[in-house]
Design brief:
This protein is an alpha+beta fold. The chain has five helices and 14 strands. A five-stranded mixed sheet has the order 8-14-13-10-11. A four-stranded antiparallel sheet has the order 2-1-4-5.
């Protein structure tokens, strides 16, 4: 397939198979000892990003709550009082990766032919420019403000959709924690961030590309968040919707 699939038929087909695939993954969770990723806690001695056994018994008081991501991408929210395994909640919730996918897609408008696009570079870039998501999940679009999710161990790669001319990129982190500038040569859409650029979870990153200023909030992805469905759900919950949609477009 060399061109982006157009029309609702292509989108609905892709959406159906994604929902079918991720929906069926949830079935064996109750019967298997599966790990879940802690996403958010309140009054519980657990850390976001921590991996726990789905059959582990959770005891929550009335003031305690926990949000977790199941292996199929479902977001499991449990509020106290509660006494039981996390896996028991998986089949009782309707929020999952399929729902996250629907939310992501609907936020892009009614023309959803970007999902189901071919995986070649030309089509990916065309879809990114038309629908506002990066061609690959691990690029920081310096022309758009928002949240960005990155691995701590990987050097960030900056991206711009317009490569027609050379530009000057300025970068600043927080309250003058770090700053730099560099020339961005024409014809190149990507630029590897300077090796001394620190990656700070929750910090604000400011970019200025030829007087176009954007602000990004960085979220470091925990090492335990590795699989596609869990990663896409984690990104979506953190607000990295453009990256999550890009990731789903590669599945």
């Amino acid at each position: 397939m060399n061109n982006i699939i157009s029309g609702q038929k292509g989108f609905l087909t892709t959406l159906f198979f994604l929902i079918l695939f991720f929906g069926t993954v949830a079935t064996p969770l109750k019967a298997q000892a599966t790990n879940m990723i802690v996403f958010k806690v309140k009054g519980v001695n657990l850390t976001p990003g921590q991996s726990i056994n789905a059959k582990q018994n959770l005891v929550l008081t009335e003031q305690q709550s926990i949000s977790m991501i199941a292996p199929n991408g479902q977001i499991i929210n449990i509020s106290g009082p509660y006494n039981g395994p996390a896996a028991a909640k998986v089949e009782q919730t309707n929020s999952g990766l399929a729902n996250a996918l629907s939310v992501l897609v609907s936020s892009r408008g009614s023309n959803n032919e970007s999902l189901g696009a071919s995986r070649d570079a030309t089509s990916s870039i065309a879809a990114a420019q038309k629908y506002g998501f990066v061609p690959t999940p691990w690029l920081i679009d310096v022309t758009r403000s928002g949240d960005h999710c990155l691995w701590k161990s990987k050097r960030p790669v900056l991206w711009r959709p317009d490569v027609s001319q050379s530009s000057r990129i300025k970068m600043n982190i927080g309250e003058n924690i770090w700053q730099a500038s560099a020339k961005w040569t024409a014809r190149y859409s990507k630029m590897v961030a300077p090796p001394n650029m620190p990656l700070l979870d929750g910090e604000i990153y400011r970019f200025e590309l030829d007087n176009n200023k954007t602000i990004a909030k960085l979220h470091i992805i925990p090492a335990e968040v590795s699989s596609g469905p869990v990663l896409a759900a984690w990104m979506n919950e953190k607000g990295c919707k453009s990256q999550a949609l890009s990731l789903l477009n590669t599945m």
